[in-house]
Amino acid sequence: MITTEALTRGYDDGARGRVRVLDGVSLQVAAGEFLAVVGRSGSGKSTLLHVLGGLDSGFTGEVTVAGTRLSGLGDRALAKFRNESVGFVFQSFHLIQGLSALENVALPAAFAANDADEARAKEALARVGLGEKTERLPSQLSGGERQRVAIARSLFNKPRVLLCDEPTGNLDLQTADEVIGLFKSLNQDGLTIIAVTHEDRLRAAASRVLMLNDGRLAPHPDPLPRGGEGDR
Ligand SMILES: Nc1ncnc2c1ncn2[C@@H]1O[C@H](COP(=O)(O)OP(=O)(O)OP(=O)(O)O)[C@@H](O)[C@H]1O
Ligand SMILES: [Mg+2]
């Protein structure tokens, strides 16, 4: 589903010159995987997600996501790719305050312009357990519910891959668990998920964990024990 080869992304950093945030990243993600990526702040996790999601074209190397080769694509082709193939979930939800849950979810189709879009938005909200709250404004929803609206929005165009940047970073533990359970369930339905995270609980939910360090991805050196806690 995802392949990168020699993926390199650098930025000009004043006196330090060109700094390579990603430095020859090779990554293969199969369809149906749930991959967690960890790494210290500034290690390039968001940068990697932006490249994979077609939000950043300033990289070199080969990147193919859901059958689209991103290397060298122009802005319009990248926008089409983003719209059709990937969904994004962010730490801070990125909902529009003046719009209802339903309108936020249908945003990719410009505010549920027709009945089919509205039905699809309702279906996405039902999938995340918010079928009864479609008319609520973000201010009338809890943090976990807001993130579930954002997840429903990311599902609206039926993406092949979900890219999540610290999706539980603004949630308390119990709410985070609900959102993690939702990711697991979506993954069991066949959605490929990549989640950047600092959280052990999200890491434990993933089928594979990689660590980004010095611009490279490597297997995580300290896998969490699965099932049971404290029994050793
Ligand atoms: N547009 C940019 N211009 C210059 N430098 C940038 C730009 N975007 C990111 N960087 C630098 O690239 C490095 C990696 O940033 P990135 O946001 O990918 O880190 P991160 O691993 O997501 O960190 P965090 O865990 O804090 O979110 C940082 O040093 C950052 O300052
Ligand atoms: Mg980040």
Describe what this molecule looks like in 3D.
With 232 residues, the chain is an alpha/beta fold. It has a domain of 162 residues: 3-Layer(aba) Sandwich (Rossmann fold). The strands form two sheets. It has a six-stranded mixed β-sheet with strand order 6-7-8-3-9-10. A hairpin with a 5-residue loop joins β1 and β2. α5 runs parallel beside α6. The longest helix is centred in the C-terminal third of the chain and has 16 residues. The protein binds adenosine-5'-triphosphate and magnesium ion. The site of magnesium ion has 3 residues, from α1.
Concise account of the structure shown:
It contains seven helices and ten strands.
